[in-house]
Write a structure and sequence with these properties.
mainly alpha, 14 helices
Length: 342
């Protein structure tokens, strides 16, 4: 027989279960939450380059929390959180954030494919402090930095963090993510609401990853999706159509075994000059395929290889693998339609 206390606990758990389930359904309906949007890296990809999917410096979210090699970054993260809170109403506002996020426990868990081992209090703490850390990185050196400055001429530790290449690449790892709706929630609680909040946050994130311009997407789920959507949009917006390529006097031999959307050899044979375009990003897709029909000059951005470039592209591969699986229900060994366009 259960005691009175145990019966009361059962009632409380049942009530909380009903409330969180209804809240989750509401979040999905409003597209606040995208269930299973933060997957694990498939085994076939992980085996090919396991180190590419592991954070080197900083842990974001529940999966790598507490790993010994990532602990030195925790103090810096907390200093960034302190800087963010000083921009608003001080340390007491963290209580409001914690109370709000703990009520989102079911929604947060639904965003991850795997089961999260942390209890609801540990998970809420992780979401709040990692989310505040990311918000400070987005705000420092942006226009908001001037609108809501750190008091007493303070300098954000986030400025130095953003210079660390491995931190930036860690923030793009597929398994090292928190949902963007957490950043939206914290932003509202700390800094007030804003129209088109998600678009606002994701466009603050683009410069963090070295991209310029804006990304007008209805919904993205996390930072890797922001970067991927920007790159994907660049290819879609700036593709050269087949009818823009001058016809050749002499037809080239057919090569049915090739399946390239665009062929440099064909362009050169058609009299088109291909030039490298100067750009500050490792790949600035906003500058892709500027084509002067009159002069027959095609300018493409340079690919700059850095120590984090490989990690970034492996992350894109894993994310596209997941997106393809959701659309088709089929797992591919290397589903790379995105990369086939390069």
């Amino acid at each position: 027989m259960k005691t009175i206390e145990e019966k009361e606990e059962d009632k409380s758990r049942h009530k909380r279960w009903m409330q969180t389930t209804k809240a989750l359904l509401g979040a999905v309906r409003k597209e606040t939450c995208q269930p299973y949007s933060i997957p694990v890296v498939p085994d076939d990809l992980r085996k090919s380059n396991e180190s590419a999917y592991m954070p080197k410096v900083v842990s974001i979210g529940p999966r790598y929390k507490g790993k010994k090699e990532l602990l030195p970054m925790e103090e810096i993260k907390w200093r960034c959180v302190t800087s963010l809170l000083s921009r608003t109403f001080g340390q007491d506002t963290i209580e409001t954030c914690l109370e709000t996020v703990i009520d989102l426990d079911a929604t947060v868990r639904a965003s991850y494919v795997d089961v999260i081992a942390l209890d609801r209090y540990e998970l809420a703490t992780t979401m709040v402090f990692d989310g505040c850390f990311l918000l400070e990185l987005l705000i420092c050196e942006s226009k908001l930095d001037l609108e809501i400055p750190i008091p007493f001429n303070g300098i954000s530790p986030g400025i130095e963090v953003k210079k660390m290449d491995y931190v930036i690449s860690d923030l793009m790892l597929l398994e090292n993510q928190i949902p963007i709706f957490i950043l939206e929630t914290l932003f509202v609680k700390l800094l007030g609401s804003s129209n088109q909040m998600r678009e606002f946050i994701q466009n603050l994130a683009l410069p963090l990853f070295g991209y310029t311009g804006k990304l007008m997407v209805k919904s993205t789920s996390h930072f890797l999706d922001v970067a991927y959507s920007y790159v994907e949009m660049g290819w879609v917006d700036k593709e050269i159509e087949d009818n823009e390529v001058p016809k050749q006097p002499q037809q080239l031999p057919k090569q049915p075994q090739q399946h390239l959307n665009r062929c440099a050899t064909r362009l050169k044979a058609a009299g088109i000059t291909i030039l490298s375009m100067k750009n500050d990003d490792d790949i600035n897709f906003k500058l892709t395929t500027q084509f002067d029909k009159n002069k027959g000059i095609l300018q493409i951005p340079r690919l700059t290889i850095t120590q984090t470039t490989e990690v970034k592209w492996w992350s894109f591969i894993a994310w596209e693998h997941h997106k393809k699986k959701l659309k088709t229900g089929v797992v591919y060994a290397l589903p790379l339609p995105f990369f086939s366009r390069i």
